[in-house]
């Protein structure tokens, strides 16, 4: 917790009015204590000249997988490929025999030739190779990688998907030792701070909150982290007595226990999101629930009794409706993660229950075409941010990194423009205003004022009037967490 005098900053009127002229902002012990046109710095307090830049609360990413994101930057990017042959060509070019290779970002649901183990083995030989699909719900592994990951060999079956995949994905470390070391995390945190980010909710699959405690003492104490746990780790968290919001290190308020995460259905890309109506390209398939109604309620009940909030992944409209019924029955609180396809009645129910919609706008860039194709007529109910806002649902924007890049400006710009290129906006009736999108990206913090926590992002341009391309890549001059400078180019 630090002290700081920020000179000549324009305060962004995010949720309420702000002075129109640039002001000086004095921070003491992590909190704003005075705002005026001209302040003098108390002895020993550092001064930073904002030179008329724009000041707002620091950004949050409400849905990340930080080990996967840390690793993603070391991996072969397959996101621009469009066929099996293209992926295999990139793998062939990138491969060093004997050095395991991990790629990510391909979209095999759209390929004519399926991703088979045999096709991959032919190109890779004995060198372990894993390619993670863009939606992170399956991995295309060769035989050598299956062996390293402890997955039974397969000839007929193609990819390792869903529950089996979620179980082995933490083991990818075996292919890239050092990829999730403390220095690798530290580098990721510094890149993230440079975007104006002050905090993230970490939904990593490893069920190991204690790893963050270790890492924290190894130099990864830069930003605020809320660490979630999955059902498999629930007993341990309950036994430790960690409730949502509790510091994981006594006296350290930046590293806290997050919610219990439940994955209640699948994804659109793998046709496993649980829907009220069938998939247009597979009329017998509605997707499916991952738990019985009784199992879902039991998890919510145990978490709620133990003081944990619950973050329930629900991508299909049926999954969202069923999850909401379970929250209503158990009294649990928390969020619906994704809420990608939703009925209007469910939006009203989410508001009534006081649940947060934790949404990832950038997914609409990837999913707009496949939505029109397999959920025809349901586009209006996809990424339905305007309905949520109108109903009074609290929105929290995120990336689901590494599914989309950990970049709140991409999420904000997409929530506003609903297009990432020169195509027309997709269902613009569901767009947010810039002010709404920013307010949904700061963990509920209001306009900077006396009494504010000094978690700041200082921007080169006024975000409220920035054109789309500037908003999308907003230059951030300074980021602070509790008054501590975590990124600066001033
Ligand atoms: Zn996720």
Q: Could you walk me through the main structural features you see in this protein, from its secondary elements to its overall organization?
A:
There is one protein chain. This protein is of the alpha/beta class. The protein has 3 domains: 1-57 and 447-490, Urease, subunit C, domain 1 (Roll); 60-66 and 180-444, Metal-dependent hydrolases (TIM Barrel, Alpha-Beta Barrel), CATH 3.20.20.140; 75-174, Diaminopimelate Epimerase, Chain A, domain 1 (Roll), CATH 3.10.310.70. It is built from 16 helices and 21 strands. The chain has helices at residues 66-72, 84-94, 117-124, 143-149, 162-168, 182-193, 209-216, 231-240, 293-305, 317-330, 344-353, 363-374, 385-391, 408-417, 434-439, 468-472; strands at 4-11, 23-28, 31-36, 46-49, 54-57, 59-64, 76-77, 101-106, 129-133, 138-141, 160-161, 197-202, 224-230, 255-263, 310-314, 334-338, 356-359, 394-397, 456-459, 476-481, 484-488. Strands 1, 2, 3, 4, 5, 19, 20 and 21 form an 8-stranded mixed beta sheet that branches. An 8-stranded parallel beta sheet has the order 6-12-13-14-15-16-17-18. Helix 3 links the parallel strand 8 (101-106) and strand 9. The longest helix has 14 residues, at 317-330. The chain starts with a strand and ends with a strand. The relative contact order is 0.15. The model has no long low-confidence stretch (mean pLDDT 95). It binds zinc ion. Zinc ion (ZN) is lined by residues 63, 65, 203, 400. Zinc ion (ZN) binds at residues 63, 65, 203, 400.
